[in-house]
UniProtKB/TrEMBL annotation:
It comes from Streptomyces siderophoricus. The chain crosses the membrane at residues 24-43. Keywords: Membrane, Transmembrane, Transmembrane helix. InterPro entries: CbtB_put. This is CbtB-domain containing protein.
Length: 73
């Protein structure tokens, strides 16, 4: 079976509805905090400001540190 879709009428345009800032702000804040936490764990955890003891976090993120240019040893 074939179905056909009528082409849009000439000159007809649709514009997306704008998103209000109040709808975006909580998600932007959440993403920003999440990225800062990720940056901390990749860049600073197991250093002078270590929150977790042991070397597990360091070993899990070791290659990522070098890839992003963070010195770790």
């Amino acid at each position: 079976m074939a179905s056909s879709i009528a082409p849009p009428a000439a000159g007809a345009t649709t514009t997306p509805a704008p998103l209000p800032l109040k709808a975006i702000a909580p998600w932007a804040l959440f993403a920003g905090v999440l990225l800062l936490v990720l940056l901390y764990f990749v860049g600073a955890e197991q250093g002078a400001t270590s929150l977790l003891s042991g070397s597990d976090v360091h070993e899990w993120l070791h290659d990522g540190r070098h890839l992003l240019g963070f010195p770790c040893h």
